Amino acid sequence: LQTQSGGDVNVEVNAAPGEDLLKKLNDMRQEYEHIIQKNREEVERWYESKMEEVSQQVHSSGQELESSTQQISALRRDYQSLEIELQSQLSMVRSLQSNLEDTERRYNMQLQQIQSMISPLEEELASIRCEMESQNQEYKMLLGIK
User: Fold this and answer.
1) 64 occurs within a structural domain
2) How many domains does the structure of the chain reveal?
3) In this structure, is residue 17 part of a structural domain?
4) DSSP string, 34-98
């Protein structure tokens, strides 16, 4: 536009700002600075309270985490102890079962040996009974003849 019009425009204001205007501007500036300071303090208090809350939550969470970690460690120790005891008991059961099987096998063998000794004795006893019956009959006959 300046090249088209071919001239410069100069505007000057010779009016000095009135004292009232400067005073009002200074008053407004102070008022806004006071509001800004008040807001800053309020935000800082809010920030501090929130930081305190977060700090307490972090501290509380840290304690809960430590407590939970200790509980987990205690439970792991208990689990390992119980697992060891279980394995020990299972080993003892296997050992006792093996001993029981060995004992049953030995007693079965002894029972078979005793049975093999009893069978001939029973046969001999039956034979002796028959012979006694026969002798008893013979004795009765002999007594009857007299």
Assistant:
1) yes
2) 1
3) no
4) HHHHHHHHHHHHHHHHHHHHHHHHHHHHHHHHHHHHHHHHHHHHHHHHHHHHHHHHHHHHHHHHH
Q: Which residues contact 2 (CB under 8 A, 6 or more apart)?
A: 8
Residue 131 in any domain: the answer is: no
And the tokens for 136? 């008893």
Please give the Cα distance from 146 to 144 (Å, whole number).
Answer: 6
pLDDT digits (tens, 9 = 90+) for 82-115: 999 999 999 999 999 999 999 999 999 999 999 9
* Domain range enclosing 106: 23-123
Determine the Cα–Cα distance for residues 116 and 30; give it in Å rounded to an integer.
Answer: 125
For residue 36, tell me if it sits in a domain. yes
What's the pTM? 0.47
At residue 2, does pLDDT exceed 50?
A: no
19-62 pLDDT, tens digit each? 788 899 999 999 999 999 999 999 999 999 999 999 998 888 88
